[in-house]
Automatic annotation (TrEMBL):
InterPro entries the UniProt entry points to: MoaB/Mog-like_dom_sf, MoaB/Mog_dom, MoeA-like, MoeA_C_domain_IV, MoeA_C_domain_IV_sf, MoeA_linker/N, MoeA_linker/N_sf
Cofactor: Mg(2+)
Organism superkingdom: Bacteria
EC identifiers of the protein: 2.10.1.1
GO molecular function, one term: molybdopterin molybdotransferase activity
Family annotation (NCBIfam families): Glp_gephyrin
Transmembrane residue ranges: none
Family: Belongs to the MoeA family.
Official protein name in the record: Molybdopterin molybdenumtransferase
One Pfam family here: MoCF_biosynth
Keywords assigned by UniProt, alphabetized: Magnesium, Metal-binding, Molybdenum, Molybdenum cofactor biosynthesis, Transferase
Reaction catalyzed: adenylyl-molybdopterin + molybdate = Mo-molybdopterin + AMP + H(+)
The protein's annotated pathway: Cofactor biosynthesis; molybdopterin biosynthesis
Species, as recorded: Henriciella algicola
């Protein structure tokens, strides 16, 4: 495959050249944001036994069917210290939230509904059905699958693993993504700029995206516009899974990224994509290493990172969802267009999408407000305000 290919074909090619899976074991305290390499099963049941949901008295339901029932208190069951005897007729055990239900008991009378005098309680009400007992294994049983391979570990997932008595998990190794800028005009943020120089803004934004997708960005610096300078950066980079050259992707005399990677033994898979912005995006492989070449224009780099780098890192395709257009759209050209767009929830529970008025590929400001990429298929006809279009949500819509 080479030449100009469609977005769908580019995504297929990336999937066919997915990174080989590599796993490592980490403590759950270090596992936030990581992706499980294998399914995890519970080591314990939760709760481990029937538990009281309230502070009160564990009783036999048949003893408290009528208001005014009197029972004798024969012991205590606080959380962590089960009461070991079996409760008999007319007996109650003082129990606290999280205490294990003693054998023989099948109901909790909450303390607000009872009065105690010495070792005797009187129930204010009668009961028809058992209450306030959490059955063993209500959350999960020992041996249940808690999480599937591929799950991303956030707060809920980590709490679930800990509750399942799991201290370590096998997670996918974070791919190392080597970000390499290129251009004689580029200077780091904060530099004193001479005429013709511009600030190297793409790597810091790309690094943040890479991190947010669970990979590790590696700064390979700025290479000058010579084959040697770029080749040196490629050769001295250590343990990189995905090279991410940005800039020098087009056809100009100073666009040297492709030949430099070709000289380093990378074989082209595709050379450009019928996408806007970001047509010069290219992809090559060498053994287990990948190189995704992004154009230098900031919007092209950031949009194509969303479209092509994210699936390469995560192994997952984008999810398109529908949103209602807040303005009219002109007919699209021959390239699949991903417009930087503002997405917001509407009062009627829907989602609206409003493309930034200027879609030039050099602009960075639209990324500050945009939460979505609005997809327009090649040669799509004009669309009226209020119609439904496909979008990719890149962050949470505004409320
Ligand atoms: N004759 C043609 N010219 C161009 C074509 C084409 O098909 N034929 N394609 C255009 C398209 S589309 C794009 S996109 C750009 C991509 O160009 P490059 O990837 O070669 O990018 P550069 O020339 O290196 O830079 C473009 C632009 O972006 C600025 N830049 C570059 N790197 C950074 C950085 N790290 N941080 C901030 N800004 C950066 C650079 O200064 C340029 O202004 O090519 C078109 N040309
Ligand atoms: O594809 Mo380029 O990104 O249009 O400017």
């Amino acid at each position: 495959m080479s030449g100009l290919i469609s977005v769908a074909d580019a995504l297929d090619a990336l999937a066919q050249n997915a990174l080989p899976p590599r796993a490592e074991t980490v403590a759950i305290e270090q596992a936030h944001g990581r992706q499980l390499a294998e399914a995890v099963t519970a080591h314990v049941s939760r709760p481990p036994a029937d538990m009281s949901a309230m502070d009160g008295y564990a009783v036999r339901l048949e003893d408290v069917r009528k208001a005014g029932s009197r029972l004798s208190v024969i012991g205590e069951a606080p959380a962590g210290t089960p009461f070991e005897q079996t409760l008999g007729k007319g007996q109650a055990v003082r129990i606290f939230t999280g205490g294990e239900i003693p054998a023989g008991a099948d109901h909790i009378v909450i303390q607000e509904n009872s009065s105690r005098s010495g070792d005797e309680i009187t129930c204010a009400e009668g009961y028809e059905a058992p209450q306030f007992i959490r059955k063993a294994g209500r959350d999960f049983l020992e041996g249940d699958t808690l999480l599937e391979a591929g799950a991303i570990l956030g707060a809920g997932e980590l709490g679930l693993l800990a509750a399942g008595n799991i201290a370590e998990v096998k997670v996918r190794r974070r791919p190392r993504v080597g970000i390499l800028a290129n251009g004689n005009e580029l200077k780091p943020p904060g530099s004193e700029l001479k005429r013709g120089e511009i600030v190297n803004s793409n790597p810091v934004a790309l690094a943040e995206l890479v991190r947010s997708w669970g990979a590790e960005p590696v700064d390979l610096g700025i290479a000058e516009d010579t084959l040697n300078a770029i080749s040196e950066r490629i050769e001295s980079a250590e343990d990189i899974d995905i090279f991410l050259p940005v800039g020098g992707a087009s056809v100009g005399d100073h666009d040297l990224m492709r030949p430099a990677f070709a000289a380093a033994g990378f074989e082209p898979v595709f050379e450009k994509i019928a996408v806007r912005p970001g047509k010069p995006t290219w992809f090559s492989t060498r053994g287990d290493t990948r190189v995704l070449g992004l154009p230098g224009n900031p919007a092209s780099a950031l949009v194509c990172a969303q479209l092509f780098l994210k699936p390469l890192i995560t192994g997952q395709r984008h999810r398109l969802i529908k949103a209602r257009l807040a303005c009219d759209l002109k007919p699209n050209g021959p390239r699949e267009h991903y417009m930087r767009a503002f997405a917001a929830f509407t009062d009627d529970g829907g989602l609206s999408v409003d493309p930034a008025p200027d879609q030039d590929s050099s602009l960075i400001k639209p990324f500050v407000t945009s939460a979505a990429l609005l997809r327009r298929l090649p040669n799509a006809p004009e669309k009226k305000r209020g119609g439904l279009e496909d979008i990719i949500l890149t962050s949470l819509p505004r409320l």
